[in-house]
């Protein structure tokens, strides 16, 4: 009995001694590794598929399409993003003239999607794979003057105003602009349509403050000369020309204030810029520039490259007609006499792929 009591006594004493020792080791950091192991978060292996989703091509000819997304997804797109990357890098203010159906609107759409930061759409293009373009997002003002009502100067002013308002609504700043203008007593119900120029200035001033976008605006004007180039009444033609000229002059002033990232204007002529000493004379005309010869349309090299989808289509058609590919190419050259040509390049319009 005495032995059992002594055994219990020494066991309790041993436990107390060990407890005291452990407390001291923790106090002086002797068991620091154990504490760190308890505090260290668990290593969690996260599985992540970083591979981009490949585009699915429809194989449908994009006849009459001016949307870059539709054309790229068709599989019949000729890459022009090298020119687009240059324009963004240089913060260009340019004018491009080309005949109709040569891809001006398609290139405008290309610039718009790049400005929006739609990177994945261009995953098989030059700008995605061979440049270090930063894909920043810019607010975009895009006007297609061929879609504006232009029977009278008043119609044209109203139509420009509505187009600018649609842009403001798209970015959620329409009410802010109207409240600001009313506070300054800039408009009244009778004279609202006369202030599209001031509205444009207010629009840009608000766009450059948007969260999630760079503080500069991309301005894209397509078919700028449509309101006056086909007008049969000389008085209306000249009035419409002056309205368009005044609009572009406003954009010029905003560009001078460093609020414009890129200004790109297209048309079939440079009529508006004649005798304009203080008008939109900031635009660099790249129509005949050797660097931008291939900015729109198909080159013969695009069509005759034996690895291209176009040449395969030519071969299938030649086999169907039981003639050689060279004979068929000769027929295409005769039927689609190059719409735009320079010494170094011949460009065809996009309807050639429907041959």
Question: What do these coordinates show?
Answer:
This protein is an alpha/beta fold. It folds into two domains: 229 residues, Rossmann fold (3-Layer(aba) Sandwich); 56 residues, no CATH class. Helix content is 46%, strand content 9%. It contains 14 helices and eight strands. Strands 2-3-4-1-5 form a five-stranded parallel β-sheet, with helices on both faces. A three-stranded antiparallel β-sheet has the order 6-8-7. Strand 7 and strand 8 form a beta hairpin. Helix 8 packs across helix 9, helix 9 packs parallel to helix 11 and helix 13 crosses helix 14. The radius of gyration is 33 Å and the shape is globular.
Order of helices and strands: HHHHEHHEHHHEHHEEEHHHEE
CATH class assignment of the largest domain: Alpha Beta
| CATH architectural arrangement of the largest domain | 3-Layer(aba) Sandwich
Structural class based on helices, strands and sheet pairing = alpha/beta
Question: Which of globular, elongated, flat, extended, rod-shaped describes the shape?
Answer: globular
- Number of helices, counting only DSSP H or I runs of 4 residues or more: 14
Strand order in the largest sheet? 2-3-4-1-5
What's the number of extended β-strand segments? 8
TL;DR of this structure?
This protein has 355 residues and is α/β, with parallel strands linked by helices.
Characteristics of this structure?
355 residues; alpha/beta; Rossmann fold; 2 domains; 5-stranded parallel β-sheet; 3-stranded antiparallel β-sheet; 14 helices
